[in-house]
Structure formats: structure tokens, C-alpha cells
């Protein structure tokens, strides 16, 4: 978990095996030694329950994910083996949507660069800061209009931004403009925000063609998963000026971030912190605990996935 509240509460209620404190090369041995006792697994966006983990834990009954994204959990295998799966939807929606808007603003208004300008003494030495781009009123394109995508759309509406979106199918009950292709969406928006789940179909959904359609005035914001974006292509598009800017909360090989991005002022980098507020992480932890308790007492799970 690496969430001290969750860790404390779990250790009050269960015998807690701290896999995350075991060095990666010793994890297999650790699992083998404790496999018979491990009935529940608490994962997060970094460590989930892949096929190998599930096979290593024959007594496993439930995977309670500390997060909404389930790309690290082999759902099909859990289903087949009768292993229950829960996640933490809803409680983190506000934070992730807030951050998406914050990232769009930070990139277009160059908030981080402007902050560096003041701190370095450049304001005094060189005078006024350069002009930036307006966010209000710009078209926002959203990939994935689920809970988080919708919350981003609602926030962007308050900035008078026309909203368009891509998803597998058109959503009823919205006035937002639907595009059945991501390239069309990118070609017709100014800010493209990735807010969908990572699946085989959405891996590298933002590829070179999409980046080129977004173009040198376009801004990409990713609050989904690193693998939604072809990262080497993103680096090239930014270095070559084919893309206007990017704000990233997630990366393909976290915590590794391509160092070529470090020198670019049209890029804002955040260390996968979308749900990282005290309030939300506590609510996520309570949901994990509530699901485990429901499972242990044979009650309906609070947020079941499988
Ligand atoms: C992480 C997330 O779970 O909810 C998700 O899918 O990516 C985050 O909330 C959190 O950072 C813990 O790893």
C-alpha cells in the first residue's frame, strides 16, 4: 500500500504481509513462504495481481485495489478462479478531474515556468514575463467519458470551453460533441485530455497520428495511464515542436520519466499524484478496508468489480 493510514488500519485487523518492503528479487521467495496464509491482496497502480501473482497465491480470495484503475489486475483470471476484485471508484474523481484542469492551466499559462522565473531572480533582472495562451473558451477534447472524464467536462464547462469526446460509443444524455475517432477528436480540439481506462484497445491510443492532429498549438494532458501515450513519439513531437505542450501525471515506466522532457518549458510533470490528497487517500483506504471487512463477514462488497 505505502499509505500509512491504510497500513496501520490493516495491521490492526489482519496479519499484514508487507510485500512492498521486500526487495523485488526476494518477492517470489517471500510469496512462496507465506502463500498458504495470504487470503487477500491489496494492490495499487504499481503492483496488482497479474497471472503470476495469482498462481503464486492459491489461498487468495480477494484483490482489493487501492485505486480505480484495474490494468494491473488479471480480471479474467480472477473471474475464472472465483477471486473477488474491488477498486476505489468515485472517491477520487474530484481530485483527478481537478488536477486535469490544473495541468491544462499550468501548461497554457506556463505557471511552473513563471514560478521558476520569479524564484531565479529573472523578473528583476529581465523584466516582465512572456505572454502565454488563454485556457477559457478553448475546445477541450476528452478521451473516455466515464466518471473522471465527465467530471473534467463539467469543470471545463465552467471555463466556457466547448467539450468534445471520444469513447467506444456515443453517450446518451450529454450535449458534448462525440467523435468516433481519436484522430478526429484531436484535430478538432485545443486541449486533449486522456481520462479512460487502460486496456488492450486503449494502449497507445495517443500515437503519432493523434499528436500530429493535435498539432503545434495543441496541448496533451494525461491523467490516465502512461501507456495510453506512445512516450518516445511524444518526446519527439515535443522536441520537434509538432505538439504545443504536454502535462503528464503518468508515465510508461514509472518512476522513470524521459529526461529529454526536463528541459522543456511547455511541459509540466507530476509524479502520478492525481488522487494524492489527504482527503481522497483516506477515503480510498476506507473503501479498501470496507471491502475487505464485507468480504470477511460475508456481506455484499461495497465496490465490486468481479
Ligand atoms: C493510484 C490510480 O491508485 O486510482 C488509480 O487508478 O492510479 C491512483 O489513484 C494511487 O496512486 C495508488 O497507487
List its traits.
Rossmann fold, 306 residues, binds 2-keto-D-gluconic acid, 3-stranded parallel β-sheet, 7-stranded parallel β-sheet, alpha/beta, 2 domains
Helix and strand arrangement:
Blueprint: H1 4-13, H2 27-34, E1 40-43, H3 51-56, E2 62-65, H4 75-81, E3 84-86, H5 93-108, H6 111-119, H7 122-126, E4 140-143, H8 147-157, E5 163-166, E6 177-179, H9 182-187, E7 191-194, H10 208-214, E8 219-222, H11 231-239, E9 245-248, E10 267-269, H12 278-296
Parallel strand pairs: 1-2, 2-3, 4-5, 4-7, 5-6, 7-8, 8-9, 9-10
Helix pairs in contact: 1-12, 5-8
This protein binds 2-keto-D-gluconic acid.
What does the model show?
It comes from Phoenix dactylifera. InterPro entries: D-isomer_2-hydroxyacid_DH (IPR050223), D-isomer_2_OHA_DH_cat_dom (IPR006139), D-isomer_DH_CS1 (IPR029752), D-isomer_DH_NAD-bd (IPR006140), NAD(P)-bd_dom_sf (IPR036291). This is Hydroxyphenylpyruvate reductase-like. Belongs to the D-isomer specific 2-hydroxyacid dehydrogenase family. By secondary structure, the protein is of the alpha/beta class. The protein has two domains: about 110 residues, Rossmann fold (3-Layer(aba) Sandwich); about 180 residues, 3-Layer(aba) Sandwich (Rossmann fold), CATH 3.40.50. The protein is about 35% helix and about 10% strand. The strands form two sheets. A seven-stranded parallel beta sheet has the order 6-5-4-7-8-9-10. Strands 1-2-3 form a three-stranded parallel beta sheet, sandwiched between helices. The chain is globular, with a radius of gyration of 21 Å. The chain starts with a helix and ends in a 10-residue tail after the last helix. The model has no long low-confidence stretch (mean pLDDT about 95).
